[in-house]
Design a protein that fits this description.
about 525 residues; single chain; 3-stranded mixed sheet; Rossmann fold; about 15% strand
Length: about 525
């Protein structure tokens, strides 16, 4: 029986009831799933069943703060899964200004959400797991732009999740090493792995195929995708990846992470590196997100030195030791819109680069002087990173590159420099709101069509779509999502990026390494 026929039969089937244990209520069979931790009841609307606020780990509070995520205690009866769980602790003002209100905040935040067109375990639909961005200091799966309904309608099971952020998610204070060294330190990444293990164990009951999982994310979410490619703890938990707007910022070495953690402790009123773990765990969680000391900030990167990240992303990909599964990677035409949060000012870049800045001018003929720093930083931090990753993976695994430059008419007045960082997400996930024109929604369906095809078959190809070949060292290909069309380009920015291959020295200048 074909997948499409199966979906139609499931959608048309009559509602059946069954009796739950005495302590619970009766619920429609087509909205109840018996997970490994207990039964949950979702909500069916317009052909899609959603399950929100599913706990995938115990609340990381009290003695579980700065510990690996622990298994959920099994429950009896049926839990309602009709509203989002708490978002992880973050600065709510900063969140509202950079992506939207994540809702109630709490340390009790390790929840995920699922959207599916069927609960048939025989459907074996492709699974897409979205990892939100936000510089590892903000964001949540509950934001409307990450809604999984559209992907569900295409025939995928869509999942997104929350994970610990800021100092609660990435922390290497010396007190953590008392009695045993070696971490963990990347608690937010451990959370993501716990969520992927939950998917592996449970997603078949939601109509998904546990052996056809695509991990997908933008910015810090895209960086997370690459970390999972690099991490030995993530192997076998996914079969494809999509990394959007991943920045070229080096992972933090353990020594520096410990120094930053000591400054965090001082900033919350404790005795720096000498603070005890007990005292650190007694600090109210919101205090960690009111710190103003810039030196008490790791930046949007992970910590090299625990079982999750024994080696940096760069070292792992350089040696070809990452997961050898298909990858899509790319960036937007104005990803530099986010650099202020990295502590960089495009207007001062040329001064800081000195002679190198003069050389950069030759790579951008016709670009006005006031736009040159912004475009140069876009390419140094984002476009080149896409090319660098693709070049290395071309030796052994299929990798597709993209460049996103489509702006809806209503957005163009506010986007004079191109598509800003994160501006492509609503197209890749097909989550544009109703205020956009039909043309924009049609474009989103095309872009998200590549995503679904890739998740389903391992190749971003479907009938009627522009051809998108994978990148090879001798076949440089990039799919450009432009305002007028979607087309594959040969040698996209190749001459410029070839020159920028010496960017390590430029990056050292920018970041003061």
């Amino acid at each position: 029986m074909s997948r499409s026929v199966l979906l139609e039969l499931v959608a048309a089937s009559s509602v059946l009831l069954f009796w739950l244990p005495a302590a619970t209520h009766a619920a429609p069979r087509d909205t109840v799933v018996e997970t490994s931790n207990g039964a949950i009841e979702g909500v069916s609307e317009n052909g899609i069943i959603s399950f929100k606020g599913i706990a995938y780990a115990k609340p990381p509070v009290g003695d579980l703060r700065w510990r690996e995520p622990q298994p959920v205690t099994k429950w009896s009866g049926t839990r309602k899964a009709n509203h989002y769980g708490n978002a992880c602790m973050q600065n709510p003002d900063q969140s509202a200004e950079n992506g939207g209100d994540p809702g109630p905040l709490s340390e009790d935040c390790l929840y995920l959400n699922v959207w599916t067109p069927t609960l048939s375990s025989k459907a074996k639909l492709p699974v897409i797991v979205w990892i939100h961005g936000g510089g590892y200091v903000l964001g949540a799966g509950s934001l409307p732009v990450y809604d999984g309904t559209a992907m569900g309608r295409k025939g995928a099971v869509s999942v997104n999740l929350n994970y610990r952020l800021g100092p609660l998610g990435f922390f290497a204070h010396p007190a953590l090493d008392k009695g045993a060294s070696g971490g963990p330190y990347n608690f937010g990444l451990y959370d993501q792995v716990a969520a992927l293990k939950w998917v592996k164990e449970n997603i078949i009951k939601f109509g998904g195929d546990p052996d056809c999982v695509t991990i997908m994310g933008e910015s810090a979410g895209g960086k997370s995708v690459l970390w999972h490619f690099a991490s030995p703890l993530s192997r076998g938990l996914f079969q494809r990846g999509i990394a959007e707007s991943v920045y070229m910022l080096p992972d933090v070495k353990l020594e520096k992470a410990r120094t930053v953690a000591a400054k965090v402790a001082s900033a919350v009123g404790l005795n720096g590196a000498e603070a005890s773990l007990d005292d650190l765990r007694k600090v109210p969680p919101d205090r960690f997100f009111k710190i103003t000391d810039k030196e008490a900030n790791l930046g949007p990167v992970g910590i090299v030195g625990d079982a999750m990240l024994p080696r940096s992303i760069a070292d792992t990909f350089e040696s070809g030791a990452e997961a050898r599964v298909p990858l899509i990677i790319g960036n937007t035409s104005d990803d530099a819109s986010v650099v202020a949060s990295f502590g960089l000012s495009p207007d001062e870049i040329m001064k800081k680069l000195g002679a190198a800045g003069f050389a950069l001018k030759l790579l951008y003929p016709g670009v006005p002087a006031d736009k040159l720093p912004r475009q140069a930083l876009r390419d140094i931090l984002f476009t080149l990173n896409t090319r660098w990753i693709a070049d290395r993976r071309a030796r052994h695994s299929p990798t597709w590159r993209f460049y996103f430059d489509y702006a809806a008419a209503k957005d163009r007045p506010n986007w004079p420099n191109g598509v800003p960082h994160g501006g492509e997400v609503v197209y890749f996930l097909d989550t544009l709101d109703k205020s956009y024109a039909k043309r924009d929604h049609a474009y989103a369906r095309k872009v998200s069509g590549y995503v679904f095809a890739f998740a389903d078959t391992g190749k971003p190809s479907f009938d009627g779509a522009a051809e998108w070949q994978d990148h090879k060292l001798l076949r440089d290909r990039t799919l450009v999502f432009g305002e007028d069309d979607i087309e594959q380009r040969r040698n996209f920015m190749k001459a410029r990026l070839d020159v920028l291959k010496g960017v390590t020295k430029i990056a050292d200048t920018l970041f003061g390494k």
